[in-house]
Amino acid sequence: RYVLSTELPVRVVVPTADDMRLLGVRLARLMRAGDLVVASGELGAGKTTLTQGLGEGLGVEGPITSPTFVLSRIHPARNGGPALVHVDAYRLGSAAELEDIDLDSSLAETITIVEWGEGLAEGLSDDRLEIEIDRSGDVADDTRTVLLRGVGERWQGVDLQALVPDQEAL
Ligand code: ADP
Ligand code: MG
Predict the structure, then answer these.
(1) Which residues of 87-98 are buried (b: 16+ CB within 10 A; e: fewer)?
(2) The pTM is what?
(3) Does 46 contact ligand 1 (Cβ within 6 A)?
(4) Fewer CB within 10 Å, N- or C-terminus of the chain?
C-alpha cells in the first residue's frame, strides 16, 4: 500500500563514510519507537554504514554489520531507549518472506531499518522514512547523494533539512 508523500525529498551530499555515519547519528535524534526506515541503494552504497551511525546515535549494542546469514538482528539499547531492528532484505524474494520475519510484533516498540526494503517494506507501515543512497558517478569518488523522504502523518512537518544544518538545500 503506497501513501503519497506531500513533502519534497531532502537531498544531502555525503563526501565520506564518516560523514555517512554522522548523518546516521543525527538521524537518531529524530527517531522514536515505532519508526520504520526503508533504505535503498546498490551494494556498497552505504546503507549499513548509515545504520551503524544510527545505532551509535541511539546508543544500541553493536556491532552493526552486514548480516550474511541472518536477515534480521535486534540491537538492544544500552540506555533503556528503543532497540534497533536491522533487517537486510537482500536475499528476500518477496514481501511474504519479509512477513515471515514477523516484524509486526516488534515494530511498535523498536526502531526498524530495512536495507533493500523498497518494494517490500512499504506494507509494514503507512509512516516511514525512505532513504535512497546513490553513488554520484566516478568509482574513484566516495561522494554519495542521499535522498530523505518522509512518508505519512508521522513525518509531516519533520524538518529533515535540519539534519544537515551546514548544507544548503539543493
Ligand atoms: P551497503 O550496506 O549499502 O551495501 P556498506 O555501508 O556496507 O554499503 O558499504 C559502503 C562502503 O563504502 C563502506 O566500505 C564504506 O566505508 C565505503 N564508503 C566510502 N565512501 C562512503 C560514503 N560517502 N558513504 C558511505 N560509505 C562510503
Ligand atoms: Mg548493507
Answers:
(1) bbbeebeeeeeb
(2) 0.92
(3) yes
(4) N
